[in-house]
Amino acid sequence: MANNRAITRPRILIVTPHPAIGAGIETVLRLEDLYDLRRVASLTDAASAAESWPADAALVDGVLLEGHAVKLAIPSYILSGDAESGQRLAERVPGARGWLPKDAPPARLVAAIDRSLGIVRVRNDVRGALGMIVAVIIAIAFVGALALFIWRFVLS
Predict the structure, then answer these.
(1) Interval 84-97: pLDDT, tens
(2) C-alpha 44: how far from its chain's center?
(3) Residue 118: how many CA atoms within 13 Å on its side-chain side?
(4) Cβ within 8 Å of residue 131, ≥6 positions away
(5) What is the pLDDT of residues 97-152, one digit of tens each?
(6) What stretch of H or E contains 59?
(7) Which of 17, 63, 96, 156 is most buried, by CB atoms within 10 Å?
């Protein structure tokens, strides 16, 4: 059996000073169970967390970026309450992949994080449907081969 211990889940750093917003985003992403998460309240805390827990991507609250020059070394999305400030802040931050509303639905959060990391996910229902189609084709081919065998060797 193969040893898959080297396979790790992407690490996502949530940087927001708002406890309710941070807890909400963290809870939603934990329910998805796709990432390892850590939440910090400031950019200073994010820098110190990066030393002991290097994140693969970050969700950064736009409130922390107002009037500050920030250079994040990882792909990030800016969390904002409105499109105008979100777009403006995302353009000012090098490495930012765009912005997200603070109340973004789980699917949008996951899609944005995956896009920033280059992850392509196949939905379970697509894999199930594709597997079912392949199984039906194999079953039809088997029944056809069995019918041909019976017709050729038994009925002749």
Answers:
(1) 999 999 988 888 99
(2) 25
(3) 3
(4) none
(5) 999 999 999 999 999 999 999 888 776 666 677 788 899 999 999 999 999 999 99
(6) strand 57-61
(7) 96
Tokens standing for 120? 């392509």
Place of tokens 């959060």: 109
Rounded CA-CA distance 23/76 in Å is 18
Q: Which two tokens stand for residue 91?
A: 């353009």
The backbone torsions φ and ψ at residue 144, rounded to the nearest 5 degrees and listed phi first, read -65, -45
∠ CA 21-8-122 to the nearest 5 degrees? 80
- Where helices occur in the chain by DSSP H, the ranges are 19-32, 43-52, 83-92, 106-117, 124-149
Query: Which CATH number does the domain 11-117 belong to among 3.90.420.10, 3.30.420.40, 3.40.50.2300, 2.40.100.20?
Result: 3.40.50.2300
Q: What is the mean pLDDT of the chain?
A: 87
Domain residue limits, the chain: 11-117, 123-156
Distances (CA, A) of 81 to 52, 67, 68: 30, 17, 18
- Helix (H/G/I), strand (E/B), else coil: 120: coil
